[in-house]
Q: What sequence folds into this?
């Protein structure tokens, strides 16, 4: 069952999204050589709660932290810990919070200082841009496959690959609602997009092959070929005027 969001729900989704966006911005400012990924977790927890939110990742199927921090070949779901960030590391930060009963979920990727190569910089740019292509394709009257195909076509035309095993999702009172939102698919196919549909679109894009493994910690997803991976995510709600991004500052 897909619950379409009312105008009042949408206002609460904006509140949740704003908290996530603000805290993500704070976290990116902490990223510099010498900090550990674990240093980000108490900041995430504290800053979410300071804004009246509750972290949603913590305890989700036993996940042990309030934020995911995935470095270099780590795709998503990296657990904050003793790993020390080095110059040119590619860091993906994923954050979720519930505010007034609704969830916001977003992710950004960035380099610690300068990128290690022009190709790595291009991976980051293309991954972020693919998210905006997907969002632009999320139009009432269209189909879910329009979003998926927009992401996939853009990514693959630049020679990068789309992770298949993990996908975006519906979002609202729960972090993960129907439908699943793959970052690959066929235009014109799938669910009819309606006003009030809330989605988290989150391309996970690899510089090399699309295959991934999960580490023995049961969470950390890594590229099988060891290549770099980037991840961007926004929570959006569809309206007659087009898609509205919830996880932005001042939304
Ligand atoms: N943005 C991720 C997702 O949508 C975050 C989930 S991490 C978890 O799946 F630890 F909460 F599972
Ligand atoms: Co998500």
A:
């Amino acid at each position: 069952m897909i619950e379409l969001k009312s105008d009042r729900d949408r206002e609460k989704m904006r509140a949740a999204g704003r908290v996530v966006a603000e805290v993500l911005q704070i976290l990116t400012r902490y990223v510099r050589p010498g900090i550990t990924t674990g240093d980000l977790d108490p900041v995430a927890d504290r800053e979410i709660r300071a804004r009246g939110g509750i972290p949603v990742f913590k305890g989700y199927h036993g996940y042990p932290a309030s934020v995911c921090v995935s470095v270099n070949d780590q795709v998503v779901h990296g657990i904050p810990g003793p790993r020390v960030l080095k110059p040119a590391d590619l860091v993906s930060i994923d954050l979720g919070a519930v505010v007034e009963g609704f969830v916001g979920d977003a992710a950004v990727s960035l380099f610690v200082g300068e990128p290690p190569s022009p190709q790595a910089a291009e991976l980051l740019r293309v991954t972020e841009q693919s998210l905006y292509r997907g969002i632009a394709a999320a139009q009432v009257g269209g189909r879910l496959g329009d979003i998926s195909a927009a992401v996939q076509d853009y990514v693959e035309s630049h020679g990068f690959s789309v992770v298949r095993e993990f996908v975006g999702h519906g979002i609202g009172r729960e972090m993960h609602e129907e439908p699943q939102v793959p970052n690959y698919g066929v235009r014109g196919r799938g669910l009819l997009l309606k006003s009030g549909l809330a989605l988290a679109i989150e391309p996970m894009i690899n510089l090399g092959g699309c295959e991934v493994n999960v580490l023995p910690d049961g969470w950390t997803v890594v590229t099988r070929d060891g290549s770099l991976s980037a991840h961007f995510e926004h929570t959006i709600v569809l309206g007659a005027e087009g898609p509205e991004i919830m996880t932005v500052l001042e939304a």
